[in-house]
Design brief:
590 residues, Serine Threonine Protein Phosphatase 5, Tetratricopeptide repeat, two-stranded antiparallel ribbon
Protein backbone atom coordinates (compact mmCIF):
# COMPACT_ATOMS: atom_id res chain seq x y z
CA UNK A 1 0.00 0.00 0.00
CA UNK A 2 2.88 2.40 0.69
CA UNK A 3 4.03 2.35 -2.91
CA UNK A 4 0.55 3.22 -4.21
CA UNK A 5 0.22 6.08 -1.72
CA UNK A 6 3.60 7.52 -2.73
CA UNK A 7 2.60 7.30 -6.40
CA UNK A 8 -0.62 9.10 -5.50
CA UNK A 9 1.34 11.93 -3.87
CA UNK A 10 3.55 12.25 -6.93
CA UNK A 11 0.39 12.42 -9.07
CA UNK A 12 -1.02 15.18 -6.89
CA UNK A 13 2.20 17.17 -7.17
CA UNK A 14 2.14 16.72 -10.93
CA UNK A 15 -1.45 17.94 -11.05
CA UNK A 16 -0.54 20.97 -9.01
CA UNK A 17 1.28 22.61 -11.94
CA UNK A 18 -1.24 21.73 -14.66
CA UNK A 19 -2.54 24.97 -16.17
CA UNK A 20 -5.69 23.19 -17.34
CA UNK A 21 -6.73 22.89 -13.70
CA UNK A 22 -5.93 26.34 -12.36
CA UNK A 23 -4.52 29.75 -13.17
CA UNK A 24 -0.74 29.75 -12.58
CA UNK A 25 0.72 31.94 -9.89
CA UNK A 26 3.29 34.61 -10.79
CA UNK A 27 6.09 32.03 -10.53
CA UNK A 28 4.11 29.83 -12.92
CA UNK A 29 3.73 27.08 -10.34
CA UNK A 30 2.25 26.58 -6.91
CA UNK A 31 3.65 25.35 -3.65
CA UNK A 32 4.42 21.66 -4.18
CA UNK A 33 2.41 20.54 -1.18
CA UNK A 34 -1.00 18.96 -1.75
CA UNK A 35 -1.95 19.76 1.84
CA UNK A 36 -1.81 23.48 1.07
CA UNK A 37 -4.70 24.45 -1.17
CA UNK A 38 -4.85 27.97 -2.58
CA UNK A 39 -7.61 29.46 -0.42
CA UNK A 40 -9.40 31.35 -3.18
CA UNK A 41 -9.10 28.67 -5.87
CA UNK A 42 -11.69 25.91 -5.46
CA UNK A 43 -11.01 24.10 -8.72
CA UNK A 44 -8.03 22.02 -7.58
CA UNK A 45 -9.63 20.63 -4.39
CA UNK A 46 -12.90 19.95 -6.20
CA UNK A 47 -10.90 17.99 -8.77
CA UNK A 48 -9.57 15.84 -5.94
CA UNK A 49 -13.15 15.04 -4.92
CA UNK A 50 -14.04 14.19 -8.52
CA UNK A 51 -11.13 11.77 -8.63
CA UNK A 52 -12.79 9.78 -5.86
CA UNK A 53 -16.08 9.77 -7.77
CA UNK A 54 -14.30 8.45 -10.83
CA UNK A 55 -13.01 5.49 -8.81
CA UNK A 56 -16.45 4.18 -7.80
CA UNK A 57 -16.62 0.54 -8.96
CA UNK A 58 -19.49 -0.15 -11.34
CA UNK A 59 -20.55 -3.75 -10.85
CA UNK A 60 -22.73 -3.73 -13.94
CA UNK A 61 -20.52 -4.13 -17.01
CA UNK A 62 -17.81 -5.97 -15.06
CA UNK A 63 -19.53 -9.30 -15.82
CA UNK A 64 -17.97 -11.16 -12.93
CA UNK A 65 -20.96 -13.48 -13.52
CA UNK A 66 -18.48 -15.33 -15.75
CA UNK A 67 -16.90 -16.67 -12.54
CA UNK A 68 -20.26 -18.04 -11.32
CA UNK A 69 -22.91 -20.53 -12.42
CA UNK A 70 -24.74 -17.79 -14.35
CA UNK A 71 -22.44 -17.29 -17.35
CA UNK A 72 -19.35 -18.24 -19.32
CA UNK A 73 -17.47 -16.27 -21.93
CA UNK A 74 -15.96 -17.07 -25.33
CA UNK A 75 -13.10 -14.66 -24.58
CA UNK A 76 -10.30 -16.96 -23.49
CA UNK A 77 -8.33 -14.03 -22.05
CA UNK A 78 -11.13 -12.94 -19.72
CA UNK A 79 -9.84 -12.48 -16.17
CA UNK A 80 -13.00 -13.86 -14.56
CA UNK A 81 -12.81 -16.95 -16.75
CA UNK A 82 -9.31 -17.51 -15.35
CA UNK A 83 -10.63 -17.06 -11.81
CA UNK A 84 -13.30 -19.69 -12.44
CA UNK A 85 -10.72 -22.06 -13.86
CA UNK A 86 -8.59 -22.03 -10.72
CA UNK A 87 -6.21 -19.13 -11.36
CA UNK A 88 -7.48 -16.89 -8.57
CA UNK A 89 -4.57 -16.03 -6.29
CA UNK A 90 -3.47 -13.36 -3.84
CA UNK A 91 -1.07 -12.04 -6.50
CA UNK A 92 -3.60 -12.44 -9.34
CA UNK A 93 -6.91 -10.94 -8.27
CA UNK A 94 -8.96 -8.99 -10.81
CA UNK A 95 -11.54 -8.41 -8.09
CA UNK A 96 -9.13 -6.56 -5.81
CA UNK A 97 -10.24 -3.15 -4.57
CA UNK A 98 -7.13 -2.54 -2.46
CA UNK A 99 -5.24 -0.04 -4.62
CA UNK A 100 -8.29 1.66 -6.09
CA UNK A 101 -10.20 2.09 -2.84
CA UNK A 102 -7.25 3.18 -0.72
CA UNK A 103 -6.23 5.71 -3.36
CA UNK A 104 -9.77 7.11 -3.29
CA UNK A 105 -9.72 7.22 0.52
CA UNK A 106 -6.40 9.09 0.43
CA UNK A 107 -7.94 11.70 -1.86
CA UNK A 108 -10.98 11.96 0.40
CA UNK A 109 -8.85 12.35 3.52
CA UNK A 110 -6.92 15.16 1.82
CA UNK A 111 -10.25 16.74 0.97
CA UNK A 112 -11.60 16.45 4.50
CA UNK A 113 -8.43 17.88 6.00
CA UNK A 114 -8.48 20.98 3.82
CA UNK A 115 -12.10 21.64 2.91
CA UNK A 116 -12.53 24.41 5.49
CA UNK A 117 -9.48 26.31 4.21
CA UNK A 118 -10.99 26.85 0.75
CA UNK A 119 -13.08 29.81 -0.30
CA UNK A 120 -15.71 27.93 -2.26
CA UNK A 121 -17.60 31.09 -3.17
CA UNK A 122 -17.22 34.82 -2.61
CA UNK A 123 -20.49 34.80 -0.68
CA UNK A 124 -19.47 33.65 2.81
CA UNK A 125 -22.76 31.88 3.46
CA UNK A 126 -22.62 29.99 0.18
CA UNK A 127 -18.99 29.07 0.86
CA UNK A 128 -19.95 27.66 4.27
CA UNK A 129 -22.82 25.66 2.80
CA UNK A 130 -20.64 24.30 0.00
CA UNK A 131 -18.01 23.22 2.50
CA UNK A 132 -20.71 21.33 4.40
CA UNK A 133 -21.87 19.68 1.19
CA UNK A 134 -18.40 18.62 0.09
CA UNK A 135 -17.58 17.23 3.54
CA UNK A 136 -20.81 15.25 3.44
CA UNK A 137 -19.96 13.84 0.03
CA UNK A 138 -16.45 12.92 1.16
CA UNK A 139 -17.68 11.10 4.25
CA UNK A 140 -20.27 9.21 2.22
CA UNK A 141 -17.75 8.25 -0.44
CA UNK A 142 -15.24 7.11 2.16
CA UNK A 143 -17.90 4.81 3.59
CA UNK A 144 -18.67 3.46 0.11
CA UNK A 145 -15.04 2.61 -0.58
CA UNK A 146 -14.73 0.94 2.81
CA UNK A 147 -17.72 -1.21 1.86
CA UNK A 148 -16.04 -2.30 -1.36
CA UNK A 149 -12.87 -3.11 0.60
CA UNK A 150 -14.82 -5.28 3.04
CA UNK A 151 -16.68 -7.05 0.25
CA UNK A 152 -13.47 -7.88 -1.61
CA UNK A 153 -11.01 -8.39 1.27
CA UNK A 154 -12.83 -8.92 4.56
CA UNK A 155 -12.76 -12.42 5.97
CA UNK A 156 -11.41 -14.97 8.42
CA UNK A 157 -7.75 -14.65 9.26
CA UNK A 158 -5.46 -17.62 9.82
CA UNK A 159 -6.37 -17.58 13.51
CA UNK A 160 -10.12 -17.49 12.67
CA UNK A 161 -10.69 -13.85 13.57
CA UNK A 162 -13.28 -12.02 11.46
CA UNK A 163 -11.26 -9.12 10.13
CA UNK A 164 -11.92 -6.16 7.92
CA UNK A 165 -9.19 -3.94 6.53
CA UNK A 166 -6.91 -1.22 7.93
CA UNK A 167 -8.88 1.94 8.68
CA UNK A 168 -7.21 5.06 7.28
CA UNK A 169 -8.71 8.33 8.49
CA UNK A 170 -5.68 10.58 8.07
CA UNK A 171 -3.67 11.75 5.08
CA UNK A 172 -0.73 9.40 4.64
CA UNK A 173 2.43 11.13 3.48
CA UNK A 174 5.53 9.20 2.37
CA UNK A 175 6.85 9.12 5.95
CA UNK A 176 3.68 7.71 7.50
CA UNK A 177 3.57 4.36 9.28
CA UNK A 178 2.01 2.09 6.70
CA UNK A 179 2.50 -1.09 8.71
CA UNK A 180 -0.96 -1.16 10.24
CA UNK A 181 -2.94 -4.23 11.26
CA UNK A 182 -6.36 -4.99 9.87
CA UNK A 183 -9.21 -3.67 11.98
CA UNK A 184 -11.88 -6.12 13.07
CA UNK A 185 -14.99 -6.31 10.93
CA UNK A 186 -16.96 -4.67 13.73
CA UNK A 187 -14.53 -1.75 13.91
CA UNK A 188 -14.81 -1.28 10.14
CA UNK A 189 -18.60 -1.40 10.30
CA UNK A 190 -18.74 1.20 13.05
CA UNK A 191 -16.44 3.49 11.08
CA UNK A 192 -18.62 3.12 8.00
CA UNK A 193 -21.77 3.86 10.00
CA UNK A 194 -20.07 6.88 11.57
CA UNK A 195 -19.09 8.28 8.18
CA UNK A 196 -22.61 7.73 6.85
CA UNK A 197 -24.07 9.49 9.91
CA UNK A 198 -21.88 12.49 9.14
CA UNK A 199 -22.86 12.41 5.49
CA UNK A 200 -26.56 12.37 6.33
CA UNK A 201 -26.11 15.20 8.84
CA UNK A 202 -24.46 17.42 6.24
CA UNK A 203 -26.33 16.57 3.04
CA UNK A 204 -29.90 17.15 1.85
CA UNK A 205 -32.03 14.19 0.82
CA UNK A 206 -31.65 15.25 -2.81
CA UNK A 207 -29.99 18.08 -4.70
CA UNK A 208 -32.93 20.12 -5.94
CA UNK A 209 -33.84 23.78 -6.16
CA UNK A 210 -36.36 24.76 -3.52
CA UNK A 211 -39.50 26.88 -4.07
CA UNK A 212 -38.72 29.27 -1.23
CA UNK A 213 -36.52 29.73 1.84
CA UNK A 214 -39.08 28.09 4.14
CA UNK A 215 -37.98 24.73 2.68
CA UNK A 216 -34.40 25.09 3.91
CA UNK A 217 -33.63 22.41 6.53
CA UNK A 218 -32.92 23.82 9.96
CA UNK A 219 -29.55 22.06 10.12
CA UNK A 220 -28.11 24.63 7.71
CA UNK A 221 -28.80 27.54 10.03
CA UNK A 222 -30.90 30.69 9.64
CA UNK A 223 -30.64 33.78 7.47
CA UNK A 224 -30.13 31.80 4.25
CA UNK A 225 -31.89 32.84 1.09
CA UNK A 226 -33.35 30.51 -1.49
CA UNK A 227 -30.68 31.63 -3.95
CA UNK A 228 -27.87 30.86 -1.51
CA UNK A 229 -29.29 27.43 -0.74
CA UNK A 230 -29.75 26.57 -4.43
CA UNK A 231 -26.16 27.59 -5.20
CA UNK A 232 -24.87 25.04 -2.69
CA UNK A 233 -27.50 22.28 -2.76
CA UNK A 234 -29.54 22.90 -5.90
CA UNK A 235 -30.30 20.88 -9.02
CA UNK A 236 -26.92 21.72 -10.55
CA UNK A 237 -25.40 19.05 -8.27
CA UNK A 238 -27.73 16.18 -9.19
CA UNK A 239 -25.74 12.99 -9.54
CA UNK A 240 -23.45 13.72 -6.60
CA UNK A 241 -23.80 11.82 -3.33
CA UNK A 242 -26.81 12.82 -1.20
CA UNK A 243 -28.34 11.77 2.12
CA UNK A 244 -30.67 9.44 0.19
CA UNK A 245 -27.66 7.73 -1.38
CA UNK A 246 -25.92 7.54 2.01
CA UNK A 247 -28.96 5.69 3.37
CA UNK A 248 -28.80 3.26 0.44
CA UNK A 249 -25.09 2.62 1.04
CA UNK A 250 -25.96 1.90 4.68
CA UNK A 251 -28.46 -0.72 3.47
CA UNK A 252 -25.84 -2.41 1.28
CA UNK A 253 -23.27 -2.44 4.08
CA UNK A 254 -25.70 -3.81 6.66
CA UNK A 255 -26.87 -6.61 4.37
CA UNK A 256 -23.28 -7.73 3.89
CA UNK A 257 -22.59 -7.61 7.62
CA UNK A 258 -25.75 -9.56 8.58
CA UNK A 259 -25.13 -12.30 6.01
CA UNK A 260 -23.98 -15.80 7.08
CA UNK A 261 -20.36 -15.35 6.03
CA UNK A 262 -19.88 -12.17 8.07
CA UNK A 263 -22.50 -12.20 10.82
CA UNK A 264 -20.28 -13.65 13.55
CA UNK A 265 -17.89 -10.74 13.38
CA UNK A 266 -20.11 -7.75 14.08
CA UNK A 267 -23.21 -6.46 15.83
CA UNK A 268 -25.35 -5.74 12.76
CA UNK A 269 -28.49 -7.90 12.88
CA UNK A 270 -30.96 -8.91 10.19
CA UNK A 271 -33.51 -6.58 11.78
CA UNK A 272 -31.03 -3.71 11.55
CA UNK A 273 -30.41 -4.48 7.89
CA UNK A 274 -34.14 -4.65 7.16
CA UNK A 275 -34.80 -1.33 8.86
CA UNK A 276 -31.97 0.39 6.99
CA UNK A 277 -33.42 -0.82 3.68
CA UNK A 278 -36.91 0.27 4.72
CA UNK A 279 -35.59 3.75 5.54
CA UNK A 280 -34.59 4.10 1.88
CA UNK A 281 -37.79 2.65 0.48
CA UNK A 282 -40.06 4.68 2.74
CA UNK A 283 -38.54 7.91 1.44
CA UNK A 284 -39.88 6.88 -1.96
CA UNK A 285 -43.28 5.66 -0.78
CA UNK A 286 -42.67 2.06 0.31
CA UNK A 287 -43.98 -0.61 -2.05
CA UNK A 288 -45.17 2.07 -4.46
CA UNK A 289 -41.50 2.84 -5.16
CA UNK A 290 -41.25 -0.31 -7.27
CA UNK A 291 -41.11 1.12 -10.78
CA UNK A 292 -43.59 -0.56 -13.11
CA UNK A 293 -41.05 -0.60 -15.96
CA UNK A 294 -38.07 -1.53 -13.80
CA UNK A 295 -37.60 -4.95 -15.41
CA UNK A 296 -36.34 -3.32 -18.62
CA UNK A 297 -34.76 -0.18 -17.16
CA UNK A 298 -31.75 -0.50 -19.51
CA UNK A 299 -33.80 -0.41 -22.72
CA UNK A 300 -36.70 1.92 -21.93
CA UNK A 301 -35.85 4.06 -24.96
CA UNK A 302 -38.14 7.05 -24.49
CA UNK A 303 -37.40 7.24 -20.77
CA UNK A 304 -33.64 7.15 -21.38
CA UNK A 305 -33.85 9.69 -24.21
CA UNK A 306 -35.71 12.10 -21.94
CA UNK A 307 -33.22 11.99 -19.08
CA UNK A 308 -32.01 15.43 -18.09
CA UNK A 309 -28.53 15.74 -16.62
CA UNK A 310 -28.48 14.16 -13.19
CA UNK A 311 -32.12 13.06 -13.16
CA UNK A 312 -33.10 9.47 -12.51
CA UNK A 313 -35.83 7.18 -13.84
CA UNK A 314 -38.12 5.80 -11.15
CA UNK A 315 -36.13 2.56 -10.97
CA UNK A 316 -32.76 4.24 -10.41
CA UNK A 317 -31.58 5.68 -7.11
CA UNK A 318 -28.07 6.66 -8.26
CA UNK A 319 -26.37 6.34 -11.62
CA UNK A 320 -23.38 7.37 -13.66
CA UNK A 321 -23.58 9.90 -16.48
CA UNK A 322 -25.17 8.67 -19.67
CA UNK A 323 -23.27 8.40 -22.93
CA UNK A 324 -24.00 7.47 -26.53
CA UNK A 325 -22.12 4.35 -27.61
CA UNK A 326 -22.47 0.76 -28.81
CA UNK A 327 -19.76 -0.92 -26.74
CA UNK A 328 -22.01 -3.43 -24.96
CA UNK A 329 -23.71 -4.46 -28.16
CA UNK A 330 -20.41 -4.76 -30.01
CA UNK A 331 -19.16 -7.14 -27.35
CA UNK A 332 -22.32 -9.18 -26.85
CA UNK A 333 -24.57 -9.24 -29.92
CA UNK A 334 -24.46 -12.61 -31.73
CA UNK A 335 -21.93 -12.78 -34.58
CA UNK A 336 -24.58 -12.84 -37.34
CA UNK A 337 -25.44 -9.24 -36.43
CA UNK A 338 -21.79 -8.20 -36.13
CA UNK A 339 -21.25 -8.83 -32.41
CA UNK A 340 -18.63 -10.86 -30.56
CA UNK A 341 -21.05 -12.92 -28.46
CA UNK A 342 -18.85 -12.57 -25.38
CA UNK A 343 -21.16 -13.27 -22.42
CA UNK A 344 -23.08 -16.56 -22.67
CA UNK A 345 -25.78 -17.20 -20.05
CA UNK A 346 -25.81 -20.76 -18.73
CA UNK A 347 -28.47 -23.43 -18.68
CA UNK A 348 -28.20 -23.16 -14.89
CA UNK A 349 -29.53 -19.60 -15.05
CA UNK A 350 -32.16 -20.41 -17.68
CA UNK A 351 -33.46 -23.23 -15.47
CA UNK A 352 -33.77 -20.81 -12.55
CA UNK A 353 -36.51 -18.85 -14.33
CA UNK A 354 -39.90 -20.26 -13.30
CA UNK A 355 -42.88 -20.83 -15.51
CA UNK A 356 -45.27 -17.93 -15.99
CA UNK A 357 -47.56 -19.60 -13.45
CA UNK A 358 -44.86 -19.13 -10.83
CA UNK A 359 -43.82 -22.75 -10.34
CA UNK A 360 -40.18 -23.81 -10.78
CA UNK A 361 -39.73 -25.93 -13.87
CA UNK A 362 -38.92 -28.93 -11.63
CA UNK A 363 -42.32 -28.78 -9.93
CA UNK A 364 -44.89 -31.26 -11.31
CA UNK A 365 -47.51 -28.48 -11.24
CA UNK A 366 -45.43 -26.22 -13.50
CA UNK A 367 -46.50 -27.65 -16.85
CA UNK A 368 -42.92 -27.45 -18.13
CA UNK A 369 -42.41 -29.18 -21.49
CA UNK A 370 -38.79 -30.30 -22.14
CA UNK A 371 -39.54 -30.39 -25.87
CA UNK A 372 -40.58 -26.72 -25.81
CA UNK A 373 -38.55 -25.40 -22.88
CA UNK A 374 -39.00 -21.68 -23.56
CA UNK A 375 -42.79 -21.69 -23.85
CA UNK A 376 -44.92 -20.19 -21.08
CA UNK A 377 -41.89 -19.13 -19.06
CA UNK A 378 -41.35 -16.16 -16.76
CA UNK A 379 -41.31 -13.16 -19.15
CA UNK A 380 -37.98 -12.05 -17.72
CA UNK A 381 -36.30 -14.98 -19.47
CA UNK A 382 -36.92 -13.47 -22.91
CA UNK A 383 -35.87 -10.02 -21.68
CA UNK A 384 -32.57 -11.18 -20.22
CA UNK A 385 -31.47 -14.22 -22.26
CA UNK A 386 -31.43 -14.68 -26.03
CA UNK A 387 -32.58 -18.26 -26.62
CA UNK A 388 -32.65 -20.31 -29.79
CA UNK A 389 -35.26 -18.87 -32.15
CA UNK A 390 -35.31 -15.53 -30.37
CA UNK A 391 -34.78 -12.27 -32.24
CA UNK A 392 -32.13 -9.61 -31.76
CA UNK A 393 -30.94 -6.32 -33.19
CA UNK A 394 -32.74 -3.50 -35.03
CA UNK A 395 -34.08 -5.84 -37.72
CA UNK A 396 -35.34 -8.51 -35.30
CA UNK A 397 -32.98 -11.07 -36.77
CA UNK A 398 -33.86 -14.65 -35.81
CA UNK A 399 -30.93 -16.24 -33.99
CA UNK A 400 -30.23 -19.96 -34.48
CA UNK A 401 -28.05 -21.41 -31.72
CA UNK A 402 -28.56 -25.07 -32.54
CA UNK A 403 -25.57 -27.37 -32.68
CA UNK A 404 -25.94 -27.75 -36.43
CA UNK A 405 -27.11 -24.22 -37.22
CA UNK A 406 -26.10 -22.67 -40.52
CA UNK A 407 -24.73 -19.36 -39.19
CA UNK A 408 -21.89 -18.41 -36.87
CA UNK A 409 -24.49 -18.05 -34.10
CA UNK A 410 -24.54 -21.84 -33.81
CA UNK A 411 -23.13 -23.59 -30.76
CA UNK A 412 -19.31 -23.50 -30.78
CA UNK A 413 -19.18 -22.71 -34.53
CA UNK A 414 -16.41 -20.08 -34.35
CA UNK A 415 -14.53 -18.33 -31.56
CA UNK A 416 -17.24 -15.67 -31.24
CA UNK A 417 -20.08 -18.22 -31.12
CA UNK A 418 -21.97 -19.14 -27.98
CA UNK A 419 -20.53 -21.87 -25.80
CA UNK A 420 -23.82 -22.52 -23.98
CA UNK A 421 -26.52 -22.20 -26.64
CA UNK A 422 -27.49 -18.76 -25.30
CA UNK A 423 -26.50 -15.14 -25.83
CA UNK A 424 -26.85 -12.16 -23.52
CA UNK A 425 -29.85 -9.91 -24.03
CA UNK A 426 -30.05 -7.96 -20.78
CA UNK A 427 -28.36 -4.52 -20.73
CA UNK A 428 -28.27 -4.45 -24.54
CA UNK A 429 -30.29 -1.99 -26.58
CA UNK A 430 -31.82 -3.78 -29.52
CA UNK A 431 -32.02 -0.53 -31.50
CA UNK A 432 -28.23 -0.45 -31.89
CA UNK A 433 -27.11 -1.31 -35.42
CA UNK A 434 -23.61 -2.76 -35.80
CA UNK A 435 -23.71 -3.17 -39.56
CA UNK A 436 -20.64 -1.23 -40.76
CA UNK A 437 -22.67 0.39 -43.54
CA UNK A 438 -25.29 1.82 -41.16
CA UNK A 439 -23.89 1.61 -37.63
CA UNK A 440 -25.40 3.78 -34.92
CA UNK A 441 -24.99 4.49 -31.21
CA UNK A 442 -27.63 4.70 -28.49
CA UNK A 443 -27.72 6.21 -25.03
CA UNK A 444 -26.69 4.03 -22.09
CA UNK A 445 -26.12 4.67 -18.40
CA UNK A 446 -24.70 2.57 -15.58
CA UNK A 447 -26.62 2.35 -12.30
CA UNK A 448 -24.72 2.55 -9.05
CA UNK A 449 -27.83 1.59 -7.05
CA UNK A 450 -31.25 0.46 -8.26
CA UNK A 451 -34.35 0.53 -6.06
CA UNK A 452 -34.96 -3.13 -6.91
CA UNK A 453 -31.69 -3.97 -5.16
CA UNK A 454 -32.89 -2.20 -2.01
CA UNK A 455 -36.21 -4.06 -2.19
CA UNK A 456 -34.30 -7.34 -2.24
CA UNK A 457 -32.12 -6.15 0.64
CA UNK A 458 -35.29 -5.57 2.65
CA UNK A 459 -36.97 -8.85 1.65
CA UNK A 460 -33.93 -10.94 2.53
CA UNK A 461 -33.29 -9.25 5.86
CA UNK A 462 -36.98 -9.04 6.87
CA UNK A 463 -37.52 -12.74 6.19
CA UNK A 464 -34.51 -13.66 8.32
CA UNK A 465 -35.50 -11.26 11.11
CA UNK A 466 -39.26 -11.74 11.31
CA UNK A 467 -40.25 -14.49 8.90
CA UNK A 468 -42.06 -14.19 5.56
CA UNK A 469 -45.07 -12.26 6.89
CA UNK A 470 -43.42 -10.24 9.67
CA UNK A 471 -42.94 -6.50 9.33
CA UNK A 472 -41.11 -5.38 12.46
CA UNK A 473 -41.89 -1.67 12.79
CA UNK A 474 -42.52 -1.39 9.03
CA UNK A 475 -45.74 -1.73 7.05
CA UNK A 476 -44.76 -4.45 4.55
CA UNK A 477 -43.21 -7.89 4.72
CA UNK A 478 -40.76 -9.95 2.71
CA UNK A 479 -43.77 -11.69 1.18
CA UNK A 480 -45.28 -8.35 0.14
CA UNK A 481 -42.07 -7.33 -1.61
CA UNK A 482 -41.60 -10.59 -3.49
CA UNK A 483 -45.24 -10.62 -4.52
CA UNK A 484 -44.89 -7.11 -5.96
CA UNK A 485 -41.68 -8.01 -7.80
CA UNK A 486 -43.13 -11.18 -9.30
CA UNK A 487 -46.34 -9.45 -10.35
CA UNK A 488 -44.31 -6.69 -12.02
CA UNK A 489 -42.42 -9.39 -13.92
CA UNK A 490 -45.65 -11.02 -15.09
CA UNK A 491 -45.36 -14.13 -12.91
CA UNK A 492 -48.41 -15.76 -11.32
CA UNK A 493 -50.88 -13.27 -12.74
CA UNK A 494 -53.47 -15.79 -13.92
CA UNK A 495 -53.51 -18.17 -10.98
CA UNK A 496 -52.74 -16.11 -7.89
CA UNK A 497 -49.17 -17.43 -7.69
CA UNK A 498 -49.80 -20.50 -5.50
CA UNK A 499 -46.09 -21.25 -5.26
CA UNK A 500 -45.49 -17.91 -3.56
CA UNK A 501 -48.54 -18.42 -1.35
CA UNK A 502 -47.12 -21.73 -0.16
CA UNK A 503 -43.73 -20.15 0.52
CA UNK A 504 -45.15 -17.53 2.87
CA UNK A 505 -45.61 -20.20 5.54
CA UNK A 506 -41.92 -21.13 5.75
CA UNK A 507 -38.87 -18.97 6.35
CA UNK A 508 -36.65 -21.56 4.65
CA UNK A 509 -38.87 -21.80 1.58
CA UNK A 510 -39.17 -18.03 1.36
CA UNK A 511 -35.39 -17.68 1.70
CA UNK A 512 -34.91 -19.96 -1.31
CA UNK A 513 -37.45 -17.99 -3.31
CA UNK A 514 -35.98 -14.59 -2.37
CA UNK A 515 -32.47 -15.68 -3.33
CA UNK A 516 -33.68 -17.01 -6.66
CA UNK A 517 -35.67 -13.86 -7.43
CA UNK A 518 -32.63 -11.76 -6.59
CA UNK A 519 -30.55 -13.94 -8.92
CA UNK A 520 -32.98 -13.35 -11.79
CA UNK A 521 -33.71 -9.65 -11.36
CA UNK A 522 -30.09 -8.63 -10.77
CA UNK A 523 -28.39 -11.03 -13.19
CA UNK A 524 -25.41 -9.63 -15.12
CA UNK A 525 -25.23 -6.62 -12.80
CA UNK A 526 -22.33 -7.93 -10.73
CA UNK A 527 -24.19 -9.38 -7.73
CA UNK A 528 -24.09 -13.17 -8.11
CA UNK A 529 -20.35 -13.53 -7.42
CA UNK A 530 -20.64 -11.71 -4.09
CA UNK A 531 -24.05 -13.08 -3.14
CA UNK A 532 -22.93 -16.71 -3.32
CA UNK A 533 -20.04 -15.89 -1.03
CA UNK A 534 -21.93 -13.96 1.61
CA UNK A 535 -24.55 -16.74 1.66
CA UNK A 536 -21.88 -19.48 2.00
CA UNK A 537 -23.39 -21.23 -1.00
CA UNK A 538 -21.84 -23.74 -3.39
CA UNK A 539 -19.22 -22.05 -5.57
CA UNK A 540 -18.34 -25.07 -7.69
CA UNK A 541 -21.53 -25.82 -9.61
CA UNK A 542 -20.52 -26.69 -13.17
CA UNK A 543 -21.62 -24.16 -15.77
CA UNK A 544 -23.96 -25.93 -18.19
CA UNK A 545 -25.35 -25.26 -21.64
CA UNK A 546 -27.72 -26.81 -24.15
CA UNK A 547 -27.06 -28.66 -27.40
CA UNK A 548 -30.09 -28.55 -29.69
CA UNK A 549 -30.27 -31.02 -32.58
CA UNK A 550 -33.38 -32.07 -34.48
CA UNK A 551 -35.54 -30.39 -31.89
CA UNK A 552 -33.98 -32.29 -28.99
CA UNK A 553 -32.54 -30.25 -26.12
CA UNK A 554 -29.64 -31.94 -24.35
CA UNK A 555 -27.99 -30.35 -21.33
CA UNK A 556 -24.19 -30.27 -21.65
CA UNK A 557 -21.34 -29.48 -19.26
CA UNK A 558 -19.50 -26.40 -20.46
CA UNK A 559 -17.08 -25.35 -17.76
CA UNK A 560 -16.10 -26.62 -14.33
CA UNK A 561 -15.70 -24.19 -11.45
CA UNK A 562 -12.43 -24.50 -9.53
CA UNK A 563 -12.99 -22.83 -6.17
CA UNK A 564 -11.67 -23.93 -2.78
CA UNK A 565 -13.81 -23.55 0.37
CA UNK A 566 -11.64 -20.71 1.69
CA UNK A 567 -12.51 -18.68 -1.42
CA UNK A 568 -15.70 -17.56 0.28
CA UNK A 569 -13.49 -14.59 1.15
CA UNK A 570 -11.12 -12.77 -1.17
CA UNK A 571 -7.40 -12.37 -0.41
CA UNK A 572 -5.33 -9.50 0.89
CA UNK A 573 -2.92 -8.64 -1.96
CA UNK A 574 0.23 -10.75 -1.70
CA UNK A 575 2.44 -7.72 -2.29
CA UNK A 576 0.95 -6.03 0.80
CA UNK A 577 1.51 -9.12 2.95
CA UNK A 578 5.17 -9.18 1.88
CA UNK A 579 5.68 -5.51 2.74
CA UNK A 580 3.82 -5.22 6.04
CA UNK A 581 4.27 -7.66 8.89
CA UNK A 582 1.18 -6.43 10.73
CA UNK A 583 -1.19 -7.44 7.91
CA UNK A 584 -2.83 -10.84 8.39
CA UNK A 585 -3.90 -12.84 5.33
CA UNK A 586 -7.30 -14.51 5.09
CA UNK A 587 -7.42 -18.23 5.69
CA UNK A 588 -6.19 -20.42 2.85
CA UNK A 589 -4.57 -17.69 0.76
CA UNK A 590 -0.82 -17.52 0.34
Amino acid sequence: MKRSIIILWIALIALSSCKDLLTPAIENNRELNPDAFIPNDARFPFGILLNAYNRIPTNSWSFNDVATDDAVTNDQNNAFLKIANGQWAANNNPLSQWTNAYAAIQYLNIMLGQVDTVQWATDATVSRLMAMRIKGEAYGLRALFMYHLLEAHGGLSENSMMLGVPVNLEVQNPNADFNKPRATLEECMQQIYSDLDRAEDLLPIDFENIPNASQIPAKYGGSITKEQYDRAFGAAFRGFLTARIAKAIRSKVALLAASPSFSNGNSTTWATAANYAAAVLNLKGGLSALATNGVTWYSNASEIAGLADGTNPAEILWRSNYSDNRDLEQANYPPSIFGSGRINPTQNLVDAFPMANGYPITDPASGFDPAAPYNNRDPRLSHYVLVNGGTAGPNNTVINTTANGNTNDALNRVETSTRTGYYLRKLLRQDVNLNPTSANNQRHYKPHIRYTEIFFNYAEAANEAWGPMGTGTNTYSAYDVIKAIRRRAGVGLTNGDPYLEAAKGSKDQMRTLIRNERRLELCFEGFRFWDLRRWKQNLTETAKGVSIQNGNHTTINVEARQFQPFMTYGPIPYSEILKFSELMQNQGWR
